[in-house]
Design goal:
By secondary structure, the protein is of the alpha/beta class. It has eleven helices and six strands. It has a six-stranded parallel β-sheet, sandwiched between helices.
């Protein structure tokens, strides 16, 4: 049995449009173990539009999150990430870059990452479904205008101009495929997900294993996007806590 003081600081990176009250339910999993939990969800405008233009706007909140560890003097504790959907992954990719390239953050001791419903390649149908869900009760005319603008951006920048844009803005998915991190990873996904393709996640799993990363993966089969916890609460919580225990040596 490991030292309970070694329970990690857990950083939850929410999905686009996620409300804090929803993310707080995941905090409970780790709070019950005595972990310090930090929750953050990137603004959906940054996720859907800034990143589509190749603007690295999420690098700033990524840096501020890591600086927060030093502000609260918890930078020496183990660190675990729990990342939701592509909205969380887009932020996580910049966190990885900073940890591996910035002197101040290179001392951080990451012990593992949990991916929930991620990562996925950009696909038009899934992206439009995700943005439509985020816009929710937005005025119908504004909602469809934003969906149209986003669709045009995806077609132009991610399809027509991809041979050019890929040289100056690597996608979050490609960045993670060859990412330098080697700590353990847990992928929680579902073939019932209509936003992120299970095949994208399974391709990532195989790629990470080829880089000698210790990977665990669970396919919930029928649960919807970022809905595995509500669908299978006990199982989901046990997967997260056992993974964290194995990563830290605590029990």
């Amino acid at each position: 049995m490991g030292n309970k003081n070694n329970w990690p600081v857990v950083i939850l990176l929410g999905w686009a449009g996620c409300r804090d009250k929803h993310l707080a339910k995941y905090s409970t999993i780790y709070h019950k173990k005595g972990c310090t939990v930090i929750r953050y969800t990137a603004p959906w405008e940054m996720v859907f539009f800034a990143e589509s233009f190749g603007i690295r706007s999420l690098r700033t909140p990524a840096r501020k999150l890591l600086e927060l560890l030093f502000d609260y003097k918890i930078e020496k504790k183990p660190l675990l990430f729990h990342v939701f959907s592509n909205g969380g992954v887009m932020l996580y990719r910049y966190i990885l870059e900073l940890i591996h390239t910035h002197g101040q953050f290179s001392s951080l001791r990451v012990v593992g990452t949990v991916f929930d419903s991620a990562p996925g390649r950009r696909n038009m149908t899934g992206s439009l479904r995700a943005l439509a869900a985020v816009l929710g009760s937005t005025h119908v005319l504004l909602k469809y205008c934003l969906l149209l603008v986003f669709a045009v951006l995806v077609v132009v920048l991610r399809i027509l101009l991809h041979p050019v844009t890929r040289f100056f803005h690597e996608t979050h998915y490609d960045a993670l495929l060859k990412g330098p991190s080697r700590w353990p990873e847990l992928y929680l996904y579902s073939k019932g997900d209509r936003i992120i393709l299970a095949s994208d996640i399974e391709h990532m799993i195989e790629a990470r294993r080829q880089h000698n990363v210790a990977v665990r993966a669970v396919d919930f089969s029928d649960s919807a996007h970022v809905s595995h916890l509500p669908a299978y609460p006990s199982y989901y919580m046990s997967l997260c806590t056992s993974f964290m225990s194995d990563c830290t040596g605590c029990s």
